C-alpha cells in the first residue's frame, strides 16, 4: 500500500471511531467523559484519579507549579489540587496522558525515539502557549495549554500505527502526503475521539493552515507562535526537510510596553514549571 492510501485508511478508521488507544489510558478517558457530565463533582473525579497514579501525580505537580502556585503554598491532596487548577486544566492533563502514552505503542526503537522527541517538543509548545495566551494574545490560558498538548496528536497517532504499515515513516512520499492533507485528516479524527473543545479544534485548523497573523490575536495564532518559539522542533519537521536546523527564531513583538523577548525571559521559570508537570 502506498503512503497516501495508508494515511487515508488510518484517517478513515479514526473517523469511524476505530481508534487504537493504549489500553492503560482507560482511566484518563473516563475522566474526560466525567468532565463532560453537567453533574460532575470533585469527589467523583478524586475517586477516578485515585486509580491512576500517573495522572494523580500530574495533577498535583501542575497544582504546585509556579504557573498555578505563584505564592508557593503546596497542596498534597487531589481535591484541593483540582480546585486550584480547575476542570479545564484537568481536561488538558488527561489528554496529555493519552497523547504521551501513544509513544509507547510502537515496538520499533527508532519510532519510539521519534515519539519521545515529539513529546519534548510538545511540552515546550504547550507551556509557551499558556504563557502567550495570558500575556500576549489574551486568550484562555487553559484552552491554549490543551491546544499545545494535542497539537501533534495526529503525528503521535501516525507513529503509533506505523508498525501496521511497514516503511510508512521511512519514505519521502509519506512525509509529503503527511504535510499535505494527511496530518489534518488524522488529527481531526483523533481530536474528535478525545472530545477536544471546539475552540481547540478551530485553533488546530489555523495551525494546519500555517498562517500566523501579526499581531497574533486568536487561539490559533497563539498556537502557531508557540510552535515557532519552541526551542525543540518536531522531529517530523526534520524528516520533512522543514527543520530550522538549530537556528533560533528571530521574532520580536511589542505588547503594550513590553517586548516578547522580555516576557519570555521573565516567565522562564513559569514555563519550565509547566514542562516539568508534563514530563
UniProtKB/TrEMBL annotation:
What Gene3D superfamilies does UniProt report for this protein, alphabetically? Hypothetical protein af1432
| Ranges of residues in domain HDOD | 21-210
Instruction: Note the InterPro entries from the entry.
Output: HDOD, RNase_Y/CdgJ
Q: What is the name of this protein?
A: HD-like signal output (HDOD) domain, no enzymatic activity
Q: Which organism is it from?
A: Propionivibrio dicarboxylicus
SUPFAM superfamilies linked: HD-domain/PDEase-like
Where, if anywhere, are coiled coils annotated? none
Amino acid at each position: 500500500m502506498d503512503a497516501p492510501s495508508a494515511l487515508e485508511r488510518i484517517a478513515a478508521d479514526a473517523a469511524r471511531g476505530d481508534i487504537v488507544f493504549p489500553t492503560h489510558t482507560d482511566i484518563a478517558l473516563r475522566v474526560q467523559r466525567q468532565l463532560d457530565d453537567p453533574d460532575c463533582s470533585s469527589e467523583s473525579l478524586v475517586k477516578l484519579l485515585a486509580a491512576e497514579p500517573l495522572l494523580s501525580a500530574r495533577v498535583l505537580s501542575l497544582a504546585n507549579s509556579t504557573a498555578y502556585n505563584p505564592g508557593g503554598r503546596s497542596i498534597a491532596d487531589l481535591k484541593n489540587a483540582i480546585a486550584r487548577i480547575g476542570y479545564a486544566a484537568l481536561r488538558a492533563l488527561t489528554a496529555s496522558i493519552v497523547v504521551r502514552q501513544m509513544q509507547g505503542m510502537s515496538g520499533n526503537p527508532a519510532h519510539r525515539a521519534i515519539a519521545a522527541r515529539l513529546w519534548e517538543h510538545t511540552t515546550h509548545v504547550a507551556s509557551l502557549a499558556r504563557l502567550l495566551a495570558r500575556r500576549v494574545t489574551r486568550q484562555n490560558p487553559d484552552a491554549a495549554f490543551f491546544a499545545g498538548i494535542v497539537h501533534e496528536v495526529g503525528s503521535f497517532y501516525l507513529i503509533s500505527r506505523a508498525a501496521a504499515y511497514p516503511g510508512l515513516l521511512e519514505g519521502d512520499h509519506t512525509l509529503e502526503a503527511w504535510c499535505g492533507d494527511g496530518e489534518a485528516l488524522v488529527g481531526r479524527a483523533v481530536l474528535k475521539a478525545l472530545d477536544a473543545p471546539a475552540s481547540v479544534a478551530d485553533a488546530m485548523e489555523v495551525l494546519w493552515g500555517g498562517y500566523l497573523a501579526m499581531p497574533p490575536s486568536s487561539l490559533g495564532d497563539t498556537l502557531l507562535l508557540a510552535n515557532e518559539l519552541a526551542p525543540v522542533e518536531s522531529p517530523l519537521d526534520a524528516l520533512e526537510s522543514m527543520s530550522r536546523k538549530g537556528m533560533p527564531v528571530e521574532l520580536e513583538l511589542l505588547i503594550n510596553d513590553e517586548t516578547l523577548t522580555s516576557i519570555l525571559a521573565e516567565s522562564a521559570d513559569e514555563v519550565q514549571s509547566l514542562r516539568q508537570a508534563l514530563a
